[in-house]
Amino acid sequence: MRQLFVILFVILSLNCQAEEMLNVSVKVINEEGSPLPNVLFSINGNNITSDKNGVFTVNIKRHSTYTIRLSHDDYYTSIQTFSDFELTNHKLAHIDDIILVKKKKSRTMLAFGGDVMMGRRFYHPYFGDQTLINEDNKLEDSKAIVQYIKPYMSLADYAAVNLETQIANEEPTERAPKSVTFYSKPEIVSALAWAGIDYVSLGNNHTYDYMEAGLQSTLSFLEGSKLGYSGAGVDAESALKAHLETINGIDFAMLGYVGWEGSASPTQTANDHHGGAAYGSMKNMQASITKQLAQKKIPIVQYHGSQEYANNPTGVTEQRLKSSLDAGAALAIAHHPHVAQGLELYNNKLIAYSMGNFIFDQNFSATQHSFILYVWLDDGEFHRAEIVPIYVKGYKPTPATGMHRYTVMKRLTELSKQRNTVITTSGGHGIIRSQHVLDSKVAENNAELAIHVANNERAIPIYHTPWDRKITEIKMPNTEVAYRLGTNLINGSDFESFATFDSPERGWLFEQNSTTLNDFGASGQHSLRVKLAANEPSVFGMQSFRRVYHAGSVMTLKAKFNVQAPVKINFYWQGRKKRQKLFDALNNSAKQLIGSVELDAASDWQNIELDFNSPRVGYRGYRVIAEIQLQNAGEGHINIDDFSLIEWQSAYSKESKPNYYNALSAQAAYLGINETVSAPIIVKF
Fold first, then answer.
1. Is the pTM of this model over 0.85?
2. How far apart, in Å, are the Cα atoms of 397 and each of 236, 522, 647?
3. What is the rounded average pLDDT for all residues in the chain?
4. Of 219, 11, 546, 620, residue with least CA distance to 557
5. Where do the Capsule synthesis protein CapA domain residues begin and end (predicted)?
6. What CATH superfamily is the domain 9-99?
């Protein structure tokens, strides 16, 4: 049975009454599973120490989020963050023991994040959203963007990210012949260093966006900073040069590469005629690694390649990374797809195939779930890894809680399982252990969960199920009921993280002056209250188009409404065609009716589920919106919760054992049934 676990240093308070208290207990263990006494915890400035059983108990005031900090002189400090919803909802409140890693001679803790930029919509946001970086306050605003991941990155002996942008005071005049170019202002360098980051890889396809002027500016600002870098230079030789760093007495060589030269002229990669990124050909990578090994350095490879928004790496990426490890690199970290991909323990060396976004302004939801990766190396040999789930909330990286934690960790767990790599739990984080260490947790006994279904629901969220376990059996109350498995294409559907971390959500379409956050909900602690006017409909739904989806899929649009006066709601999907500009699609694309409902005033929440098919061909993305029309004169309001867009990843089945024909069905966040049931559904793991 999992231990109930909780909080240590409170970072944010929201909509909580001071007299409400939370009584929690946590157990801390070492890597062998033995309890750790004398571990120091901090709660609002008060210190608490674990007892001889590694347990501490505390009674604290309720807050919206809680960040725990566990410290011991002989162990690496650990930080984890949980939401109040996770720790008070009976379905979610079972949290694993937290495992601390022992310090030892020649052991190093490295931290990695994904793609980073602070330009474009950070300064000029869409949709009237809040500006994150203001010209008259650039440095402090830039630091505010990384404030919630600073504690996490600062724990490591050495931390690295992929800097996917050039750096300049103003946009350079000469631009590479490509559709998308990035530049960020110099304050990004100071903000990253302040956040605990030590090194940036420049081996990517945006390092030469503004060609020589942009490259020279970038290199100049980095040279004047505390950040180490590699992966780009004024010619091929300098671009392939490693950044050398001694960490805890061990000499490392940091190497960065981009996986393709680019079709434009000049190319994005450096050669004898111009600068650019280091070209990550098999020949270049192996030669660089061999050179560093000859100099008694331990090579760490960062590589930018594969296909954007894909679930798995390309064959080219996989082969180059594995060949690099075969050649002697200790670790391979990859990026470019803007979504997280799985991890693989290959010959006891770790590959992270895509770190996803870390600090980025992409405004479609598939790119907003990623992770920090901790890796411990002993004399350059893999010892252990830990995964910290991240949600890029309003372009800011924040610790993922609730449904965001589930989404990140379920994806990484299932994609890694495809590569025979097992992720187990440490509190709310994931861990990967060395192949030389037997992990007894893998052999745990099977567990089961009874899911109680409301009378009229056929699409049931299963975010409260364990993300580290795959569903092995589904038992229906009777043999006539069939089920299917689906994923949710809308982030934050339950609104539990809507107002956390001082970073407003940018994914929802609503009138800001007429919408407030409730301290109650249909299935949790929060919902949205939308003020309605009789003379025109109020619009609610997705702000941007969902770009990562499967054409021709069976969909369900699900939402719960608490109605104070009679309303009519029309639900639509609206598409953006493949070559269509964003705002042209938002303003001019036809709205396709999914269905209409009329709701009478009622004290209870009313569940709405409408089935339709996603666009088949010709669309780059689509979104769903609801137009809510008050039926009476005057004004009123409506409460909205659990607004979800479910893409079904399997057909209905009556077989008790799920068929995971689609890899996404193993990442299911929803269980669908073909008819309502009154008795619980039993799910086994």
1. yes
2. 33, 28, 26
3. 92
4. 546
5. 109-362
6. Immunoglobulins (2.60.40.10)
